[in-house]
Amino acid sequence: MGIRATTVMRIAGFLCMVFSPALLFPLLVSLWYRDGEALHLALSFAVQFTTGFVLWLPFRRRMELGRREGFFIVGLFWVLLSLLGAAPFVFGLQLSFVDALFESVSGLTTTGATILTGIDNLPPSLLFYRQELQWFGGMGLIVLAVAIMPMLGIGGMSMYRAEAPGPMKEEKLTPRMAHSARALWSIYLGLTLACALAYWFAGMTPFDAVAHSLSTVSTGGFSTHDASLGYFSSTAVESVATVFMLMGGINFSIHYLAWRDRSFRHYLANAEARTFLGFVVFMVAFVAVALRLSGGYGDIGDALRSALFEVVSVVTSTGFGVADFSVWPLFLPVLMIFISFIGGCGGSTAGGMKVMRIVLLGKQTVREFNRLIHPTGVFAIKVGGRVMGERVTQSVWGFFSVYIATFVVLMLLIMMAGLDQVSAFSAIATCMNNLGPGLGAVSQTFIGVSDPAKLVAVAAMLLGRLEVFTVLVLLHPAYWRQ
Question: Alpha-carbon distance 144 to 110, whole Å?
C-alpha cells in the first residue's frame, strides 16, 4: 500500500496549527517587557497557523495512520516546523534564512548550538522563544500531539514509534498510547515547574528561572546569557542544573513509575538508569582526577565541581557551561565529545545513541567472545533479568552501523564546506548527539561557519534527534513502492 498524500497533508497541517499558539507566550512576554517584538511574533503566529490551516482544510476527515504515513509525517513535520520556527528570527533579528533556520533547528532538536552573539542584549521575548523551542522539542513534538490526537479521530502510535528515542519503542506506560503521552507530558511539566522554583530559590530572577528551566529539563542548553550558567557564578544554581539535567537524562517512564508508587527504588531497579548513573559517577571521578593531576586546578574540590557539572552537561547532551572544556588539558576535550555519543537513557530528553544501546552492544561483544571459546554454547543477552530478543539486538547493531556511517558522510561533507578536521569532527558530533558546544572553530558558536556547513549541521541535528532511521527510511525505494 502506498503513501496516502491526503493523510500526510492533513496531519502535518493539523500539527502546525496545534503548535502555532506556542508563539503567543513570547508575544505576551514582548507585551510585558515592551521590547518591540510583538508585531513580529504575531506575524510569525499568523504564518504558522495559516500554513497549517491551508494544509488541513481540504482533507479534514477522520482516519487512522499506517506505519508508512507515521514515518513520513514525523519527518515532514519536523522539517516544516523548523522552517516556520525560523520566522521570529528572520522578522525580529533580521537574520539570514540559513542562520535563522540553524537557530530554529538547534532549538527544536535541543542541540543548543547557536549562531548568535550578544545574547544578553537580545529582546526578552526572543530569548524566551529560544528556550520554548527547546522545551517543546525535548519531550517530543509528536508525543504532545499524540496526547490530543485521539480526540480528533487520529491514531498516533505509528508516529510515536517514528519519533520516540531509544531501542524500546513498543513499550507504553498505559494500555492506551494517548494516556501514556499525557502521563509523560504531565511529568515533564511537573519537573519543569519544580526546576523553575529551584532556580528562583537559588537566586535567579523569575524570568531567568523560568527560561532556564525550559532548557534544563529538556536538556537543550540554550541560555539567556552569553556566559551560560557561568554568568551566575553560583554553586546553588549549578547544583539545581546538575540535578535536573540528570532527571532529564533518565527515562521519563521511570519518573512516572516513581511518582505513581511514591518510591525511588525504580531508579536503581532499572538496569539502564543504574548503568547511566554509575557511568556518570565514574566519569566525574576520572575527569576530576585528570584535571587535578594535570595542574589545571590547584584544589581537588574545584576540579570535582567543574568535572561534575561538565560531565553531566555533556553526557545528557545539555551543553550548559561553567567552564570551557575545549581548553582543558591532555585528552579531556576529545573525551568529553566521545562521551556525548553515549548520551542518556532511552525515553529521556537527552541525545546521543542512548545507554541501553551501548549496554546491548557491550553484551553482544561479550557473547561473541564466549562463542569463540564455546562454539556450541547458547548465550542469551539479558538486561535487568530480562532476555532481549534477537530482533532488538540486531536493530541495535543496525542502528550503530548506520549512525557511524552517517557521521562519517556528514563529517566529510562539512569538511568540504571549509572546516578543518578537528572542527568538522566535533561539529558533526555535537550536532548529531544534540550536544551544542564543540571544539576548534565551533567551540563557542557556529557564527563563523559557512552557510553550506551550517546546512550540513542542520541535517545532522535533525538526523540525530530523529535517530537516523526515521529520516533515512524515507530515502529507501521500497518505502515508496505500492
Answer: 16
